[in-house]
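// run 5 | inverse folding | seed 20
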């Protein structure tokens, strides 16, 4: 190959100048693109630096205006925030944080009319801005407009994952007002996505368990689903506060065939992952294991206790009126020669024991047990408990209860 074939083509000075200019332009565009990408990536954690890197990005300018108009902002900060907000809207007319900044600052200065006008524009641009929603809630509260207040609660809770942490405690403190409670039920009847989370929250939180129960009763009437775990949590809370009678009334209203004169679920058929005090509750303790095992044709209560271990294995709260009661049922799987057999105990809620009924060892009974308790006046609530006695056998004790019911004794 000749030297001439290997040589580069000659270019004029103008051509080289054009190529250099294009190269510099591409480098400048690349630098600008990288800088802007960096600015946008750091807009939340380092907003001032992001604004310095991309001063013409209206979204970043709007975020900086928001930061400067926080609760601790001085009058000078708010003036600067207004300047930035207006600049952001010139750069990006749909920058909602900038609109909200102008509205907040107007409200802080006492110009409510201007604030309402500005926030109306913000709301038209987007329903997802948190500051707009919080201002709308406060404005509705100041006007004592309950429907508008709850409507803005609903919008905020639908559109922001962080809002439950902010709004649930406030809402819980307000449901003592019957009008607020009624309005809230109407909203929950539309099945918003936040409803299950709220129902679980209010079951264990709030200033008054009785008010939460009133809300749950209204939700039942409105056919709003209430998870049983939430019912159980509220019932435990009510019992813990000494509201046993109110707890029973609430429980009975939503439980088919509930009768205060007898225990419930004699065949262990009810399947609740988190039982209420009025349901059978299996107790786990050191050296003892117990569980309610349910099947298609009923269930059993299964238990094991290590050698020497005793104590409660199964419990259900009662609200029996004064009188004589019979407990009867059937056990299986308990070694006939075991001397330390389980027994049923009934005691008042204050700890006063009313008696005990042993599970017999006689094989002829085929595991059937039967015995009586007397409930005196002044004992409005009781606990029916299956107790384990410490066994001297090396393997401890094990067995099942297949049926247990406590009911009024015939005269």
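// decoded
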């Amino acid at each position: 190959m000749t030297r001439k074939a290997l040589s580069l083509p000659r270019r004029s000075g103008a051509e080289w100048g054009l190529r250099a200019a294009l190269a510099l332009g591409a480098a400048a565009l690349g630098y600008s693109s990288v800088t802007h990408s960096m600015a946008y990536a750091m807009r939340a954690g380092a907003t001032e630096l992001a604004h310095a890197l991309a001063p013409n990005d209206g979204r970043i300018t709007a975020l900086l205006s928001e930061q400067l108009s926080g609760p601790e902002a001085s009058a000078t900060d708010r003036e600067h925030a207004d300047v930035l907000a207006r600049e952001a809207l010139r750069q990006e007319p749909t920058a909602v944080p900038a609109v909200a900044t102008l509205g907040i600052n107007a409200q802080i200065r006492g110009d409510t009319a201007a604030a309402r006008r500005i926030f109306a524009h913000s709301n038209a641009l987007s329903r997802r801005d948190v500051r707009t929603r919080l201002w709308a809630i406060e404005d509705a509260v100041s006007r004592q407009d309950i429907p508008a207040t709850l409507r803005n609660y609903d919008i905020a809770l639908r559109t922001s994952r962080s809002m439950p942490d902010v709004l649930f405690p406030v809402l819980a403190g307000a449901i003592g007002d019957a009008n607020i409670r009624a309005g809230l039920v109407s909203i929950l009847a539309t099945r918003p996505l936040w409803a299950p989370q709220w129902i679980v929250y209010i079951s264990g939180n709030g200033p008054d368990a009785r008010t939460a129960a009133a809300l749950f009763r209204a939700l039942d009437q409105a056919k709003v689903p209430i998870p049983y775990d939430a019912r159980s949590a509220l019932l435990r809370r009510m019992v813990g506060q000494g509201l046993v009678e109110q707890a029973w009334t609430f429980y009975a209203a939503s439980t088919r065939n509930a009768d205060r004169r007898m225990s419930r679920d004699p065949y262990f058929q009810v399947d609740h992952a988190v039982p209420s005090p009025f349901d059978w509750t299996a107790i786990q303790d050191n050296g003892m294991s117990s569980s309610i095992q349910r099947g298609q044709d009923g269930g059993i209560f299964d238990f094991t206790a290590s050698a020497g271990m005793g104590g409660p294995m199964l419990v259900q709260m009662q609200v029996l009126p004064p009188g004589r009661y019979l407990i009867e049922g059937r056990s299986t799987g308990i070694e006939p020669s075991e001397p330390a057999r389980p027994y049923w105990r009934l005691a008042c809620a204050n700890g006063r024991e009313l008696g005990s009924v042993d599970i017999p060892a006689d094989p002829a009974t085929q595991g059937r047990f039967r015995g009586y308790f007397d409930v005196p006046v002044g004992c409005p609530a009781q606990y029916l408990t299956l107790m384990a006695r410490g066994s001297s056998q090396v393997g401890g004790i094990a067995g099942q209860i297949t049926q247990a019911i406590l009911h009024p004794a015939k005269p």
